[in-house]
Amino acid sequence: MTTPREIAEQGVEFLDACLREIHTSAETRSLDTDEQARFDEGLAERARLVAVIARHDQVASLAAVPANVERGASFDAPNVIVRDNPFDLSDLRPLDGTATRSQALRAIEAGAFAKDDHRERAEELVRHLPTEAAVRVLATASPEYERAFGKIIADPSGLSLDAGEREALSRAASLTSNAGGYAVPVIIDPTLILTSDGSANPFRQISRVVPITTGVWKGVSTAGVTASFGAEAAAITEGSPTLAQPTVTAHKAKAQINYSFEIGMDYPGFTSDMLMILQDAKDTLEATKFAVGAGDGSTEPFGIVTALAGGSSEINVAGSEGVFAAVDLYAMEEALGPRFRPNASWVANKAIYNKVRQFDTAGGAGLWERIGAGMPSQLLGYNAYEASAMDGAWDVAATASNYIAVLGDFRNYVIADRIGMSVETIQHVVDGDGKLTGQRGLLAWWRVGGDSVNDAAFTILDNPTTS
Fold first, then answer.
1. Contact partners, residue 182, CB within 8 Å, separation at least 6
2. 282-303: per-residue pLDDT in tens?
3. pTM for the whole structure
4. How many CB atoms lie within 10 A of CB 369?
5. For a tag site, which of 62, 78, 146, 448 has the least CB within 10 Å?
6. pLDDT in tens, 11-69
7. Environment class of residue 249 by beta-carbon count within 10 Å: exposed (0-12), middle (13-18) or buried (19+)?
8. Helix/strand/coil (H/E/C) assignment for every residue in the chain
9. Residue 56: how many CB atoms within 10 A of its CB?
């Protein structure tokens, strides 16, 4: 490796050659103005390099005397672990799945999640879903983005954003596909974390909830494999199962909240409270649609009632039409396959449960177990959950099917959550005449689907009536 002194020496040699060439080309005449200027510049540069060489020689001479040398510390520097900022996305390479997931997990660790189970849920999604989930976490997990999101919702003009917040919004827009909206920060996104604590919606508690990053969940189901005994050296009976490939399509759901300019400006907890209201609206809508949703033809989930009605899982009341009795509950249990009973649950309207309580007038039926003590209460030994959208009454004067109870293993009802809730602000809300109301709007949308993937895992009770 060439040293600085050697470089200076080479420079002096080069300048000497240049100066000799200028002098030789002039022969006996005097140098003209341009030649004289180049000759003087060369001399000045040569003098500077000679001084550099002399300084190097002086330092080397002084260093040769031990008294002139100050020794460094005799101990080694400690090992230092440098942790980079997990929210710095300047070097993010989304196509590098391993690096993206690793950075997303560090961002989750540093994020201000309200509960540890929320953090664990986000980590689980990042580890097991395609890289898109990790990218969304990175785009929306930083404190800058959370502040920017709150400000842009309260004031869509964005004038209150500082430089860091603007950069966070811009970066999130480039890393996610929100069609002009804003991705909800991961720490409060109900499609990424579990925020339905204390919810009256039973389906997310007992069903199979599958997060997806596409529009359709595709699975495999079977009625089971047939096993058998056989004699020595005898032909083996073929017992391959018949495989089905169920799909669940995620449909777009939406909710809108209008609020005055004044609320957006003055309400300190505006963002968190608005998102809490949206979460409640989401939960209420899904509780209805997971029970009685009309299905893909109506761009909504298949409710469990819709999925089972009219199929092989349906049984009718044993007695007269319109008369519901204890024998019907036992019939439902007996009709349910033994393999589905250990994890089975009831779902019905509260009014139906109240009717069941009135069956036991003599205190001997024993339908309910530990009334008021169990959470949830148990009916015939199975947990009983409330679904208020299901039929709770019937009109004996009308011709109709009245689906009043479902018993089954709800792990066979799949809820497909397309991860990511987005919101968009409506700058100005107008009334029916097109006049401004002095309000802004907050439009939120998400995608979710639901359907039974194995109807044999359920029984549904129909209490039909005829006019």
1. 149, 152, 153, 169, 172, 422, 423, 424, 425
2. 999 999 999 999 999 999 999 9
3. 0.70
4. 14
5. 78
6. 888 788 878 888 777 777 788 887 888 888 888 888 888 888 888 888 888 888 777 77
7. buried
8. CCCHHHHHHHHHHHHHHHHHHHHHHHCCCCCCHHHHHHHHHHHHHHHHHHHHHHHHHHHHHHHCCHHHCCCCCCCCCCCCCCCCCCCCCCCCCCCCHHHHHHHHHHHHHHCCCCCHHHHHHHHHHHHHCCHHHHHHHHHHCCHHHHHHHHHHHHCCCCCCCCHHHHHHHHHHHHHCCCCCCEECCHHHCCCCCCCCCCCCCCHHHHCEEEEECCCEEECCEECCCCCCCCCCCCCCCCCCCCEECCEEECEEEEEEEEEEHHHHHHCCCHHHHHHHHHHHHHHHHHHHHHHHCECHHHCCCECHHHHHCCCCCEEECCCCCCCCCHHHHHHHHHHCCHHHCCCCEEEECHHHHHHHHCCCCCCCCCCEECCCCCCCCEECCEEEEECCCCCCCCCCCCCECCEEEEEECHHHEEEEEEEEEEEEEECCCECCCCCECCEEEEEEEEEEEEEECCHHHEEEEECCECC
9. 16
Total count of residues recorded for the chain: 467
148 residue type, one letter: A
Q: Give the model's pLDDT for residue 179.
A: 52
Q: β-strand 221-222 against 251-260: which pairing, if any?
A: unpaired
